[in-house]
Specification:
- The chain is of the alpha/beta class.
- 39% of the residues lie in helices and 25% in strands.
């Protein structure tokens, strides 16, 4: 009850799952491919993994969506993620939905038109971090938004003879 269902255990889904676990959340994962790259790692972390198509209501029911607090749809396909989000809403109309989308404009339209709480464009989130990393020539270790402001965490090494010492 009140767990978070992560649909898609690719690179983004696996990272999202790990962050949720760090936040102390209970997670159930849904993955289409039983041989998926991160299936065993998720299970080794104690996460139940449901093998099935998250666009199908019976798969989402097996993952406990009717009792869940949120669904994270983060496959590599925008339409699949939208389908998962809408199916989750059919099962539990007030469920919080976070959805990965490649197309930033489509993400805005989906958020507004379908009432999806959060539709995030991974390319829109990553592009400023790539540009910042190139511009400041530092190692950006993490990027995140606070409201509409992008914040980057980076490492800058200061040489002993630098004017930045002290």
């Amino acid at each position: 009850k009140d767990h978070i269902v992560v649909c898609g255990l690719g690179k983004v889904g696996f990272r999202a799952m790990n962050h949720l676990l760090k936040f102390g959340e209970e997670v159930v994962a849904v993955e289409l491919n039983k041989e998926g790259r991160f299936v065993e790692q998720a299970r080794n972390r104690g996460v139940p993994v449901i093998i099935g198509d998250a666009r199908r209501p019976e798969t989402l029911v097996r993952a406990g969506v009717p009792r869940a607090g949120a669904v994270v749809a983060c496959t590599e396909d925008d339409l699949t993620n939208l389908s998962i989000a809408l199916e989750a809403r059919e099962l539990k109309p007030n469920i919080k939905v976070v959805m990965r989308m490649f197309d930033a404009e489509l993400a805005k339209r989906v958020e507004k038109g379908f009432g999806i709480h959060t539709a995030l464009s991974t390319s829109a989130l990553a592009a400023p971090a790539f540009a910042a990393a190139a511009a400041i020539r530092a190692d950006i270790t993490y990027s995140f938004y606070v409201d509409k402001m992008l914040l980057n965490v980076c490492e800058l090494r200061v040489k002993p003879d630098s004017s930045l010492v002290g």
